[in-house]
Design a protein that fits this description.
By secondary structure, the chain is mostly helical. Helices cover about 85% and strands about 0% of the residues.
């Protein structure tokens, strides 16, 4: 049931049935076609549960697909969170290293430049660099 082959075969059979009984090649099922009607009713009685079973199977497949997709999405979300944590740790480490490098370069420059005026200029420059580094 439900295939083109079945539909064509059933159409040919019904046409043959009605044609044979109208033209009176057969005499077993005349005009109200009660036997043909009984055959269709029996077919419908079997078709309805088959359609419901097919729908239930499709629902189960859809549910399994959705559960699988939700599980994959959760796993991807966890992976993204882990990558974000690692990236933040790397950024923090780079910022600490940058502060250390700036502190070392500041200390070296203070030792190298003996002039007090020059030291104030270097301090101001270091403060400007620190402010610029802190900006997002």
């Amino acid at each position: 049931m439900g295939s083109w082959r079945f539909l064509i075969l059933q159409t040919v059979l019904v046409a043959f049935w009605i044609g044979g009984n109208v033209v009176l090649f057969f005499h077993f099922d005349t005009f109200p076609f009660i036997l043909l009607n009984l055959a269709f009713s029996t077919q419908a009685a079997y078709a309805a549960p088959l359609i419901l079973l097919a729908g239930n199977r499709q629902s189960a497949r859809d549910r399994a697909t959705l559960e699988h997709a939700a599980k994959e999405t959760d796993e991807e979300f966890e992976q993204n969170l882990e990558l974000l944590r690692r990236t933040e740790a790397i950024v923090e480490r780079i910022e600490r290293m940058e502060r250390v490098v700036l502190a070392i370069s500041d200390a070296v420059l203070r030792e190298v430049v003996p002039d007090n005026v020059r030291k104030r200029e270097l301090d101001e420059a270091a403060k400007r660099v620190e402010r610029e580094v802190k900006r997002p």
